[in-house]
Amino acid sequence: MDKMTEEQYRAISNMLRKRSLWMLHYCTGCGAMELPPTMTSRYDMERFGIVPYVTPRQADILLVTGYVNIKTLRRIVTVYEQMLDPKYVIGFGSCPINGGVYWDSYSVIKRLDKYIPVDLYIAGCMPRPEAIITAFRYLMDLIDKGKADGYKRYKENLEFYKANQRKVLG
Amino acid sequence: MKDIIERVKKISNAEVSIRKDNLIFVDTSRERLISVLYDMKLLGFNQLSIMSAVDRLEDGEFEIFYVLYNYKEKVNAVVRSRIDRENAEIETAEKIYPPAHTYEREITEMFGIKVIGNSDSGKPFILENWKDKPPMRKDFDSVGYVNMHYEFRHSADEETEGKNE
Fold first, then answer.
1. Domain membership flag for residue B155
2. What are the angstrom distances between the C-alpha of B73 and each of A62, B37, B45?
């Protein structure tokens, strides 16, 4: 154990982390419709070690399912900051990417990655359960390679994110 | 024709138009609005299904409407009234229909119509930190507001904070 370098330790912990991802069951938009078939026996994401969980303190993944309006963004930021490291964010559907059909709405934000760091986007309106599972597998690869570093970017660029949040939340 | 519609027609200062067997429209003036609602309640229209406003920008008016329902006779009634767009004000209907309290707060916030007698009218309700024109007015420039407050993602190869799949 003493001889183990920091990099080896990180590689092993990443390998273990990717096999047990707990997903926060916090559904913000219409994308939550696609989660029940993904969770239950038809597509069964538990075979990949992904479990829906109800508290942010014990979850690894924050899935932002659908449009984010200003009221929701305030709660998303609170929930994201309550989660413990390491934490990953998946933007789900076309609305967190560029606003989707709400591109001219006064209350919906257009880019989620301006306010919290997003590790992965799933495009589509709505993405099918197969796409969700593909995204989770892709996220596992990113974690294994150590590239899913959104929570580190949030700490490094905290001023950038906080300034953007203050601009819309007041 | 149902007997209840005949009785609604006898309410003073109200024009009744019949759309269907079970749907009538009652047009009245702003001053008579509350008393017409009171008469409607006495006739058995016990439920306020929804109350809202329409912005008639070309006429320079707001249209206030109350959708009422009579459980016994199974008749819907829409009580409508036009008010001026400048310094728009209505009286509260919460003494007659208590659910109107919440609808009136929403109207105040979304249309900027002041409600006299509603103690919570003007308090923050749905929008948070709103400083612009009320957003449901037709002359509110939604795209202009969006361009001023939010940033768009302009192209796929633009450098982003997140990674794209």
1. no
2. 51, 17, 9
